[in-house]
Design a protein that fits this description.
With 74 residues, the chain is an all-alpha fold. The protein contains 5 helices and no strands. Helices cover 81% and strands 0% of the residues. 15% of the residues are buried.
Length: 74
C-alpha cells in the first residue's frame, strides 16, 4: 500500500479533482483496513469534490465500519 500511496499522491498533485481515482485510492485503503486514513480522505475530499463516486465510497465505508444501529440513528 505504501507504493500505491506514492503513485496516487503524485497523480493527485496533477489531477486533484479526479473523483474516480480518489474512489480507487479509498478502496485500496479500505482493503488494507486503514479506516482512519479513509475517514480523513473522505472528510477532506467530499467537501472539495462532491461527486457521486466519492459519495459511493463514503457509503461503502459506513457499511463496512458502522453497525446497523449506528447507521439507522444517523
Amino acid at each position: 500500500i505504501e507504493k500505491a500511496r506514492a503513485v496516487y499522491d503524485a497523480f493527485f498533485e496533477q489531477f486533484p479533482t479526479a473523483a474516480k481515482y480518489w474512489r480507487n485510492y479509498i478502496a485500496k485503503e479500505m482493503q488494507a483496513k486503514n479506516f482512519e486514513r479513509v475517514e480523513l480522505v473522505l472528510h477532506k475530499q467530499l467537501l472539495l469534490i462532491p461527486h457521486s463516486h466519492l459519495w459511493q465510497a463514503y457509503l461503502d465505508y459506513v457499511r463496512a465500519t458502522k453497525g446497523k444501529e449506528e447507521i439507522l440513528k444517523a
